[in-house]
Protein 1
Amino acid sequence: MIKAKKSLGQNFLIDKNILEKITNTTDIQDKIILEIGPGTGNLTSNILKKKPKKMYVIEKDNKLVIELENKFTNQISIINDDVLKIDETNLFNNKVKVFGNLPYNISTEILNKWIINLKDNFWFECLVLMFQKEVADRIIAKFNTSKYGRLSILCNWKLNVKKICDINPNSFYPKPKVDSSLLFFYPKKNFIKINNPYNLEKVTRVFFNQRRKMLKKPFNQLFNGDKRILDKLKIDLNLRPQNLSLDTYYRLAYEYENLRC
């Protein structure tokens, strides 16, 4: 058996029931599929059974690439590269469905990269992704809760997110020390337009830099105490960052962007 590399955050999924649940999350037949980090190809095999039109995989580990080539021959197209360095928007002519047991050490970095670079004409139909449960909980957290923060706000801007299930460590080899969660992402039809996503990234960074403090200081830092914006968005500066809704942050980013035009 191939030895997992801790440096690449590798934990290979081996639970047949979970593999089946993942591939039943969305229709695969005659679709173009992209799998991130296929590892030894357990999920890949299950996806191929559903008869996709075409399947691509992105795998950084050279030894695993050889394993995948031997196992699947001409059934898949292998991209031997670092997913963080790839521009998926220029990789495909048609929209794809993305599956991934993401490496825990870079899972949020991958997702942030996709969202920051996401154009209005989405390059994917949906994302079926596995995260460390603690990270997944932050992604789906609602405002007025302790886990709500920058990740929740960024991930829910252009995407709907739904939790499929939790997965215990026994489903993997080697066993991770934490539980995992499977999330399903699909594009929103309507969302607040922000021309430069880094403005949303900056607004949330400033507000959540001191999440236990009231909103007055970060608001003044970004908007110089502009009362018109307070009145327009109906913001109470005595609240804390976690008390503002998703839409309020998107509207704040929109106002911040307009101030800089």
Protein 2
Amino acid sequence: MLFFSYMVLEQGALTSKYSAQNPFKAGTRRGDAFNEEVFAKLENLIEVMREIGFGHQVNPAEIAITWAIAKGTLPIIGVTKPSHIASAISAIDVKLTNKEIEDLEQAAKSSDVEIRGSWENSMI
């Protein structure tokens, strides 16, 4: 059985391009969901993604994609530039260790951030 995962990069919030100091534009859907407070909570997760990415010579976005693949899903990735395609392709070659997966999941859980669209229902 194949599962698709969507919003793997959380609308760009997990790329490390944006932060509490450089948030999305206010008054937009992304800006409302990922405001400065949310980015502050995500700082540790993004730092863990940077550290793991450094070891694999990839960026945090590629680590998010790689994690989704490691969990047995096929990630759906929105791209706006050709470089995003190359980035996504490079994630295929990254193999996360069990410890790296655990570290990512612990950092995500400890962020206490859960963004859900109005159309999404809880799976619990």
